[in-house]
Structures are given as C-alpha cells and as structure tokens.
Amino acid sequence: MSRVYIIDGKRSYIGVENGMYRHVPAEVIGAKVLKELLFQHDINDVEAVIAGNAVGAGGNIARLMLLEAGMSETVPAMTVDLQCASALAAMDIAASKIAGGRANLLIAGGFESSSTAPVRSNNPNHPDFVADGDNSYKVAKFSPGKREDMAMLEGAERTAVAEHIRREDLNKWVLRSHSFAVKARADGVLNDVIVQVADGADRDEGIRNRMSERLLAKVPVLLPKGQVLTVANTCLTNDGAAFVALASEQYVSAHCIRPLAELVDVVMTGGDPLMSPKTAVLAIERLLKKHNMTSEDIDVFECNEAFAVIDELFMRAYPDAVDRYNIFGGALAYGHPYGASGGIITLHAVKALEKTKGEYAVVSVAAAGGIGTAMLIRYCR
Fold first, then answer.
1. Model pTM?
2. For the chain, which domains are there?
3. Residues 314-325 pLDDT 10s
4. Structural contact between residues 34 and 71, judged by C-beta atoms closer than 8 angstroms
C-alpha cells in the first residue's frame, strides 16, 4: 500500500448565489482553478480528475470541466455526488486508487454553481407529479416520503430543538466565524491557495466586516414555525471550486517533491437523515476511534459550518478543542458551494497546520441524507 500525499491545492474565491459568478457556469469556475493548479507545477501526467458536484447539470460534468480547462482528451474524469461531502468523497476515491497502486497522480476536489444550477421538474410518470401544480424543484429528495424544498433547514431546526440548542447559543458562532474570516483575510493566510477565476471576483463575497449581537437579535427566523434557524446562523448558497493534487510515494520520490500533507484516511458514517447535522461529529468520533486517537491528538479541526448548530454540537462533544476548531472561520462567513466545500476546508486545514505548526488535522462534513464524512491529514513540512 502506498502512502497518499497532497502535493498542492487551489480554490477560487467563493461567491454568493447570484453574486459575482452569477453568469459563470460551474464547469468554467472549476476549469479556471484546475488550470491554475496544473500550470503552477507544470503537471502534464495527471491520470484522471475526480470531482464532486451536487447541483450541476449532470452528464458527468467533471469531464466537461476537464475539457473546458484544455486538458488532454485522453485524461478521463468522473463526477461524484455526495451532496455537501462530494469533494471529500472524490478525494477518498482518488486516495484509494493511489493507495492501492492503481494510480500515481490524480486531481480531486469539487466545484459548484448555485447561481446557474438547473431547475428540474417531475416527470408526469413520477408519483410526485402534480397534475395541476408546480412540478419544478431545485432540491432533491433525501429521505423517503414527500420531497421538501426546505428539508435541510428543517433538519437543522429539528436537530436544534432535539438537542435543546437555543438561537442565543448560536449567535457566538456567527460572530466568531465572521471575525475569524475577517482576520484571516487581513493577514493573508489563505492567499497562496486562492486563485481569481473571473474579472471582479477578487474576494470571498460572504464575509461580513461588521456583526453584532444586536444585529443578530433582529434577524428573523427562516422557517414559518421555526424558533432557532436564521439567515445569519445558516450558511448561504454559493459558487466556487477547490482541488488538490494527490500523489503516491513513488511519484513524490521520482519528482523530488516535498508534499504538503499526507492524506491518512477517510471514513463515512450514516445517521438520521432527518437530523443530518449530527453526522459531522459522528464521523469524527468514528475516525478517531478507528485510529485509536482522541481529540487531544488533533491540532486542527475543520468542520463544514453549514449551520451553527454543527458548531454547537462540536463544542459539546469536544469542549477542550474549540480553540483548534475552524481557526480561519467557517462556512457561515465564507459560504457553502456544496460540491466544493470539502476541498475548501481541506485546504484551510492544511494552512491551519502550517500556521500552528501542528501535525494532525481532521476535516468533517455532514451531508444531506444523513451521511457524515471525516478525513485525517498529517502535515509534512
């Protein structure tokens, strides 16, 4: 079995839906990041691209992105859909191929455009078709029963109520996420992993310089009968892309490359599809148990902050690790381009290890349908 190394990675600036990338399709955003990653290293021996995408047009959109980037038509591509964890799933597949000796250099990650995502419609033959109603939808069905456009929001609200999490408990996470992201931007700690992919797209669009408890108290709840979720403590929908180059020991040695980090392992776990935010912590627990580690062995935690509820659940599970958690801010500030988010927080985790001189990081994502995915990374530099 070969070790699997992250030799580099890049992400785009993250745009809000209908913002700076409103006319830029997902495959174009992804292609620009992919080209930059390949160009900086003069990489011309990639064996395949494996990319996550959750709400795109389908039809193996990763292959379309590869061709858009000008890569050779001889290089295959595969699209992975694990919704919010799509990029981590793509990296897991790529790492498994390399570890098993079936590849030496692969590109993995994800890309997304909520701004240009297609609107789908129920087929008249489908049981969900309504003869005299609106059959269009943008959100898939994630559990048996009626499809609900607000399923993920309702799941987070349901989780908050079940775990006795109050709206007031979440405000501190909103303030923390934006203030940490503002500082990270001012310090330029992520500059060398970010590439500009469109004219005028020169910032992470969702970060707010000013947030206060008073402002958060005035934000209305999102759901008609909701008590906890607001537009502030729930991430925005976004556009963006992030990729890493994964290589085998043989490739790294042959090309005298000093890798950024070792991708040690990825685990997946299932949970209640009606309370999917819980699976971020469930996946971390499973990963740590598998490697006989505790939270004290981990120097950096990065969770996809789709809801501040996830932050609160993490704090309750690992209260002594909060100072090592999302130290550059999370998706409440940056946003959540579904298919790309796992790649984005992986790059943030590597940079956090660099900054803190840590050794191990855990990256975790709770995905729609009740799937938790967690990755263990070891810093190499």
1. 0.97
2. 4-117+236-254 (3.40.47.10)
3. 999 999 999 999
4. yes
